[in-house]
Description:
- By secondary structure, the protein is α/β, with parallel strands linked by helices.
- The protein has a domain at 59-81 and 88-186 and 194-206: Vaccinia Virus protein VP39 (Rossmann fold), CATH 3.40.50.150.
- The chain is 17% helix and 25% strand.
- The chain contains 4 helices and 9 strands.
- The protein has helices spanning 7-17, 59-66, 136-142, 149-159; strands at residues 25-29, 32-40, 72-76, 95-100, 111-112, 127-130, 165-170, 181-190, 198-205.
- Strands 1-2-8-9-7-6-3-4-5 form a 9-stranded mixed sheet, with helices on one face.
- Strand 1 (25-29) and strand 2 form a beta hairpin.
- The longest helix is centred in the N-terminal third of the chain and has 11 residues, at 7-17.
Amino acid sequence: MDPVITLTDRCRFYAQEFPDRPAPRVTLSGDREWLEAQWHMGNDYRNASRLYGAYPGDYLERVMVLFPDAARVLHVCSGSLPLTHAGRLPGLPGWHCGVDLRRDKERQPSVLGDAQRLPFAAGVFDLVLVDPPYSPEDAKHYKVKMLDRCKVMNELARISVPGTHVVWLDLRLPMYRKVEWRRYGHGLIVRSTNHSFRGVTFFEREGEPEPAPRQPARRAK
């Protein structure tokens, strides 16, 4: 059985990778552990993407270092994610898949699809990163419809299994069912002047992992 990675472990991974930056920390919320992060990113002009609302700076690197156990990653509303045909992202571990409603010069998702009706079965992904349009004005800019956050969370519950993590980047906390999701942390992203603050929420799919199928006993010869 694989060892359990705790929230303290995830904070330690971050501190080892970024020793010059404040690491997320674990606090107690009632009788449960809670992950807190505050990331000051500034305005990173090295970001190759010029797509409106693209992932800020090294956001992906910061998230992925928290989840070294994620071998298969889904990006919902993936925008201009620079995915290779082999599903790789430069400098990041794991296999990645991007889903978006549009494909054009700037947006090249792996799969064209609606976040409210994802074309995947349960158990394909270990980690899901979501960065939806934050407002009707944003959706109009992207030339897509505004997503129903609650419907997206319901759909993510359908394709997830116990232990699947979701990292949701937004200006709002999405509605979700507590019987399906455990919310275990949040973060604040602070950029340069005249940029909106963004919030990051961490979820884990509730439930007990299914046991591995038992092998039939062999008869002695």
